[in-house]
Design brief:
Layout (H helix, E strand, L loop, with lengths): L1 H22 L33 H16 L4 H15 L30 H4 L2 H13 L9 H9 L11 H11 L3
């Protein structure tokens, strides 16, 4: 009985992973069909206890790169909030290379994307614009992402082992977008 249960769980996990691989972006650039909503404030619907970190110059530059890529993709501020919150969770907004024994498989960059899962080459994934556009391409494939809780939208793209962890960064991500969007 334990073997059957274990195989069922592993099968479901495999389907979830495969869904993430095939739903995840493979192309370098997101489609620009969606125009940014000008003047519309970013709504905060933060769930649960919120976390916050003090950013250094590199992290702030990565925030600005995520916002620039979101604008390039023609997406609204909400997409930047989801992207920044995701990056806060995955890398604390640091463009991480391979971390040796502490690396999660072959995860790299701001979003801890994996070359083996079709996100791009290591060089592409560690390029903030490319990795953001790849994340946003995946986000755009999520029906109703604009209206769903941040953590649900992020998890659908990322397929993380910790699906609720993104929510804790919503307030800080919203503040960062509100601070840097019009600069």
């Amino acid at each position: 009985m334990n073997t059957i249960l274990r195989k069922s769980v592993l099968g479901i996990a495999g389907l979830a992973f495969t869904g993430g691989v095939f739903a995840g972006p493979i192309a370098a650039h997101a489609d620009t069909a969606h125009a940014a909503t000008a003047g519309k404030p970013v709504a905060v619907q933060a769930e649960g206890k919120q976390s916050s970190i003090t950013l250094n110059g590199e992290q702030t530059a990565n925030v600005k790169a995520i916002i620039a890529a979101t604008k390039k993709a023609g997406l609204p501020e909400r997409a930047a909030v989801i992207s920044i919150a995701t990056s806060l969770q995955e890398s604390k907004l640091e463009n991480l290379g391979h971390l040796g024994d502490t690396n999660d498989h072959d995860s790299l960059g701001l979003f801890q994307q994996r070359p083996s899962s079709g996100w791009g080459t290591p060089e592409q994934i560690t390029n903030p614009e490319y990795s953001t556009l790849a994340f946003l391409k995946g986000l755009k494939q999520v029906d109703g992402w604009q209206d769903m809780p941040l953590t649900e939208a992020a998890q659908t793209v990322q397929v993380s082992a910790y699906p609720d962890a993104y929510a804790q960064w919503e307030n800080q991500a919203t503040d960062l977008v509100n601070q840097h969007w019009n600069k």
